Amino acid sequence: MTEESVRWGILATGGIAAAFTAALVDLPDAEVAAVASRSEGSAKAFAERFGIERAYGGWDALAHDEDIDVVYVATPHSAHRAAAGLCLEAGRNVLVEKAFTLNSREAVELVALAGERGGFLMEAMWMYCNPLIRRLKALVDDGAIGEVRTVQADFGLAGPFPPAHRLRDPAQGGGALLDLGVYPVSFAHLLLGEPSDIKASAVLSPEGADLQTAALFSWESGALAALHCSISGGTGTSASVTGALGRIDIPDGFFHPERFVLHRDGRDPEEFVLDPADGPRNTLRHEAAEVMRALRAGERESPLVPLDGTLAVMRTLDAVRERIGVRYPHEG
Prior knowledge:
Layout: E1 6-11, H1 15-25, E2 30-36, H2 40-50, E3 54-56, H3 59-63, E4 70-73, H4 80-89, E5 93-97, H5 104-117, E6 121-124, H6 131-141, E7 148-156, H7 176-192, E8 197-204, E9 210-218, E10 224-230, E11 239-243, E12 246-250, E13 259-264, E14 270-273, H8 285-296, H9 307-324
Parallel strand pairs: 1-2, 1-4, 2-3, 4-5, 5-6, 7-10
Antiparallel strand pairs: 7-11, 8-9, 9-10, 11-12, 12-13, 13-14
């Protein structure tokens, strides 16, 4: 790693890996140096697509590539523990796609391993790195809407997804909750922390994956959160935070917003808009930039996506799954 560039390795070659790599290519201080897949052909095709120098037909070679500063793990959830663990063991810094792992036990293991090896570890919760989400968080923390009373957020895709699709395959951590529900859950955690009580209900597929899940969280402060995720119906992906003195609405795409509106009692609504310089709506570059900033600063975790927060979210996801009766084959 130099002041000029941070050298990235990409582990997996699916859609999210491609989107993240495209974001890295647009960052002048990022270098995508290598890619790995279980399929050598897939790795080579990905490398050719993005002009990457080294392509590995296996994870181990990437994990032990001494010329890599940080590895981005973009496998399905079910492989996060193994892939990220391999890289941490080999001395690599790691950014892991969300949901961070299948369950909190695996998450605790990865965090402990990073601590033992002295490596940087972060969940790829790009929402937390978004400039508008950071502004919203600051407004709430500064008391702009008073004490938070309620949080609402939803994320649903229309589908339909066939039984063999990753999103419906329990062996890959399929279902709405880990893929989509992690966003509403993380949004509520960002504003209120870990809930004290959790209620949830779901519609399950014949394979045992959750097609849609609704959850009601409560906190000792009296705050409530109503959250929903679905892979059987497209939702507005809206969010709202209501406080004793006002409300903040994100009308659509709450996890990568272009705008939100602050409503305060006795005042005209205030609209906050994403700076055009921050790039297109689907950008992941803020997340990548935060990783590189932390690495250059010698930090072992990001203050924007702290590991304690990631562990708390995973505990909450475990609790929701317990209530809706979803268990993955890897969990025994």
